Structure formats: C-alpha cells, structure tokens
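Marked as duplicate of an earlier ticket. Keeping the data here for the record.
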Amino acid sequence: MATPITILADSSVNLQNPIIPEPSELIIGLVAFVILFSCLAKFLLPNIRRLLVERTEAIEGGLQKAEIAQQEAEQIKADFTAKLAESRHEAAEVRAKAQADGAALVEAARAEGVKQRETILANGQAQLDADRLSAIGVLKADLGKLAVDLADKIVGERVADAAVQGRVIDRFLDELDAKFAAEQAV
C-alpha cells in the first residue's frame, strides 16, 4: 500500500499539482462548456428573455391599468361630489322658493281676507245705516201719530192741518234728540 510519504519518496511517480488539471481534461471541459453555452444562448436564453419581457410588460400594464382605474375612480368621486353639491344647492333654492311662494300665498290670502272683511263691514254698515234710516222713518211716523194723538187729548180737539201736525212732530222729535244727546254727553 502506498502512503503519501512513500509516494513522495518514490521519485518514479510523476508529481503534479492537483489544482491544475491535465490538458486533455481541460480541452474536453472547455469544448463541453462552449457547446453547452451555445445551446443555452441559442435556445434557452431567448425564451427566458421573452418570458421576462412579457412579465415586465404585464406588470407595467397592470400598473398602468391600476393608475387609470385610480384616476377614473377619483374622477367619478369628484363628479359625484360636484353633483351632490349641485343637488344640495338646487334643493336649497327649491326650499327658498317654496318658502317665498308660501309667504306670498299667505300674504295674498291675508290681503284677500282683509279685503273681504272690509267689504263685509262696508256692506254691513250700509245695511245698518239703511235699517236705521228706515227704523227712524217708521218711528217718526209712529211717534208723530202718537204725538198728535197725545196733543189732541191734551188740547181736547183734533188738529186737522197736516202742516201743524208736521211742526208738532218735528218739534217733539227735536226735543227728544236734544235730551238723548245730553244724556250721551254725560
């Protein structure tokens, strides 16, 4: 059995550096590496590059789509916010107009009620004046007749003259009006 010491001691054994390969192995390894590298460069690397380019494009496309979707969402949100603000403004205008219309209707109804009240009061006052004048005429006639009858009883004879009867009635009514006015003043 050969031990390392015996191998070193034996000068017949060709001692070679174990780190440096033999030239035939080096040439075979180099040829195999070139063949393998050229096969990889010709067949496998283009597919890998194509796959990497497709993935990069897909990722960038996805990012662009996401950015576009984000911008669209922001635009939709801005449009919605603007429409909401516009709707609130329109609602406020409608409420203000409705309040103004309601106030105008109330004022118109109030004015119409005042006008009707004034008309009713004027008609009632006119009717009262007419009834008062009619009542005064009827009362004067009745009071005149009673005054003439009373005067006839006091005097003892019948006053036949209509002019005298009219003066007697007027004087009697004037005296009654004066008494009534004096009582009202107190």
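See parent ticket for discussion. The two ends are 169 Å apart (CA to CA).
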